[in-house]
Input
Amino acid sequence: MSETVDKTATPVTTTDDEKKRMRDRVEALLKLPPSVSTGSVSIGKKALSYAVSASFVPVVANMSDTHKGEADAALFLTSYTQHIKGVPLDAAARPLLFAFNGGPGSSSIWLHLGALGPKRLVIPDDGSMPPPPYAVQDNPHTWLEHFDLVFIDPPHTGYSLTASDAARKKMLSVDGDVEALAECIRAYLTRAKRWGSPIYLAGESYGTTRGAALADKLLDLGIALAGVILVSCAMDIQSLDFEGKNDLAYGLFVPGFAATAQYHGKLNGPQAKSGAAARSAAEEFVTTEYLTALHLGARLPTARRKQIAQRLSELIGLPTQLVLDNDLRVSDATFFSELLRDEGKIVGRLESRVTGPLGAKKSRAWDFDPGLEALLGPYTMAANAYFQSALGVASDQKYAVFSEIAHKEWNWLQGESKGNSYTSTSNSLARALRRNPHLRVLVASGYYDLGTPYSASDWSLARLDLTPEVMARITHHYYEAGHMMYTRTGDLLKLKADLKSWLQA
Output
């Protein structure tokens, strides 16, 4: 799951009593015994048995000179290990996948209960919110068929917590987050005696930002990955941000706007025939005309400006005058609130097929994402029920599906982004691919994702500093839904099939 970038971290003051409570809470979590159970799921005609363990892993990061060796954080992990008649499969040969979501500030519940795990929350194929009650059911398309699975909740998501102000400040940052998860993965491999397994990562949204950096960081720890799976890419934040004079995002979002406008019946002419026709026309317009027009700015002749505005209007379903009034630059927020204004609706960001009602005043403020709201409540309730009732997790604290603390305090200006206002970890992925000749990458993008549009992912991958021979180890697939494309049954099946083909290649 992806949220709007806020580069200003909110300072937090903590009293001595609060500091002690932070430390005590982490120590209490680490003393909890793992919640262990077994289960079975049918995949076709085959019954797959597994053991599941929900537990906390200590992360020590030596935050200061006064550090006494205590854990700086307790990270919550849910692991699934395939069994045959109660006996684990050979760990030396069995691949192991570590999975996480993004935000930053999101727990791993979306990939966990949306697509990868042996249990799944079913969402209507159109992305709309299902009625209650919300409960998981067997997932016959679980990735447990191919890997043992470990879902990691980063600091201050899920049940995971840090033990001090210093730890929280460091781990709620681009670099600190990567260091914490790298240490968590190293610790798990040692505890579970899985150093002999082929290791994979799967990240979604900001989890791809994290995953790209981890691919390189883990090599520094001697952990050579077999593969990285990037769902809804966000490696280069510049491609997603409409801030300031960044014209890049305006061009990269147009194909997604066009597909969305076609889906909602707002186009005419050849581009109205299908989503594919709308995307193709938009892609050609962006590369042959639109980017040049944006580059020229005020130097663009008036007649040509009107031509560009009219063509953009035809492609994205907004009035020509509105495009002109916005200086040919239509932001995501403008598109969300204007496309269906005549119908009294706003358009979703993470799932643009989904709409929500405008208020009676028909304000132009886009104050909620109907694509996200359709999922947040159901996933939150299903996750809490699953962890507490099915898995028996003993913690009485809130399971943070999405953490406001992590989101508000996040420090974006780290690592490769120093000296630049935009976080970028694509260089880390490129370096990892050059360092590790066996590393392969699978990328998944939804056509109706207006949080991390498919065309922005295309751009990011095309900008990797790689030779054609190394680029050949990257595979990119596309899907007919949004950010969490796996909520649509057809895309869930396609994603699993694409994964299988990628693994067999």
Observations:
- Residues 246-369 form one domain.
- The radius of gyration is 23 Å.
- DSSP finds 17 helices and 15 strands in the chain.
